[in-house]
Amino acid sequence: MRRYMVAGNWKMNMGPAAGRELAAGVAGMLKGRTLRGDVLVCPPYVSIPAVGEVADGNPVLLGAQNCADQTGGAYTGEVSVGMLKEVGVQYVIIAHSERREYQRETDSQFVSKINLILEAGMKAIFCFGEVLEDRKAGRAEEVVRKQLEGVLPRLENANAYNLVLAYEPVWAIGTGETATPEMAQEIHAASRAIVAELMGAEVAEYLRILYGGSCKPGNARELIGQPDVDGGLIGGAALKPADFVGIIDGAEATLD
Ligand code: 13P
Fold first, then answer.
1. Most CB atoms closer than 10 Å: which of 36, 85, 220, 253?
2. Is 55 a residue whose pLDDT tops 70?
3. Euclidean distance between CA atoms 105 and 95, whole angstroms
4. Are residues 252 and 35 in contact, defined by beta-carbon separation less than 8 angstroms?
5. Is the shortest distance between the CB of 219 and ligand 1 below 6 Å?
6. Residue whose CA is closest, atom 5 of ligand 1?
7. pLDDT value, residue 252
8. CA distance 221 to 4
9. Residue 214: pLDDT over 80
C-alpha cells in the first residue's frame, strides 16, 4: 500500500509574512489529527525559513520548488541542495512544466539536480506531462515515455522512497480544466509500467505518482481514489488553507 502524498506548490506566491500566515492556517486546521499520508508545502526560497518555524511540531513537511544543478560556487542567483537542507527542506520539486518552458531546463539538468538531492539525503519530486497539442494528437503517452526515459535510467541510487513522480498535464495546470479520473489513471498506469521497465517491478510497485493540474477539494477524492494515483501536487488550491485541507480530506477519504 502506497502512502498518499499531498504537496502544495506555492509557485511565486507568498512572501515570508504571507507564507507564515498560510502555513499557520493549514497547521491550525490539521492540529490534533493523525494523517495517514504525507503532506508538504513548497514555498518560494525566501519564505522557507518562516514557514519552517510554523511547521515545527505539526505534520506538514517542507519542500522547495527547485535547486541548482551544482553544489556551490560562482553560480549567481542559484541555491544549492546543501543550503536547502540547512533550512529544513526534505523534498525538492524538479522539472515542473513552468521551468521546462520558461527556463528551458533540460533532461541533463534534471538528472544532475535529482542526483544531488538524493546524494544529500533528500527526496525529489520529478514532474512530467504532455502539452495540449500532444494530447490532441494522441501523443500523450509517447511524450510521457520520452520524459521518463530521458531521466530515470540516469539516476544514481533512486528508489521508491526517495523519488516521487508527478504527472502534470500542462493543459490542466492553472486552467480550471482537470484531467478526468479515467484520463489520469490511464497515464498513471502507463507511467508505472514504464517505471517497471526502467527501474524494476519492485520500485514501480512502491513509487508514488502524484497528479497535478486543477486539483481541488471537489475532485480530489475521485482523482486520488484511482488505483495508480497516489496523491496530488497542488498549485492554486494550496494557497487557501480550507482548500488545501479539503484536498487532504479527499485523500484521507480514499482510505476509509
Ligand atoms: P494548479 O493546481 O494551479 O492547476 O497547478 C498545478 C501545478 O502546477 C502544481 O505544481
1. 220
2. no
3. 7
4. yes
5. no
6. 235
7. 98
8. 11
9. yes
Which residue is listed with cell 510554523? 54
State the Cα–Cα distance between residues 22 and 117, nearest whole angstrom.
Answer: 26
H helix or E strand, kind and range, residue 209 = strand 208-212
Handedness of CA 9, 4, 86, 156 (dihedral sign): negative
Which residue's CA is minimally distant from atom 2 of ligand 1? 235
Q: How far apart are CA 177 and CA 184, in angstroms?
A: 13
- From 40, 131, 164, 168, the mutation candidate for ligand 1 (largest count of ligand atoms within 8 A of CB) is 168
Confidence of residue 1 (pLDDT cuts 50, 70, 90): confident
- Per DSSP, 239 falls in state G
31 near 87, Cβ under 8 Å? no
- Please tell me the distance from the alpha carbon of residue 2 to that of residue 231, in angstroms, as a whole number: 10
DSSP 4-35: PEEEEE--S---HHHHHHHHHHHHHHHTT---
168 is catalytic: yes
Q: Does the CB atom of residue 234 touch ligand 1 within 6 A? A: yes
- Per-residue pLDDT for 57 more than 90? no
Read off the pLDDT of residues 231-243 as tens digits, 9 standing for 90 and up: 999 999 999 999 9
Model confidence at 56, pLDDT cuts 50, 70, 90, reads: low
CATH of domain 5-253: 3.20.20.70
Active site residue 188: no
pTM strictly above 0.85: yes
Mean pLDDT of 39-50: 97
**Cell numbers at residue 23, please?**
502555513
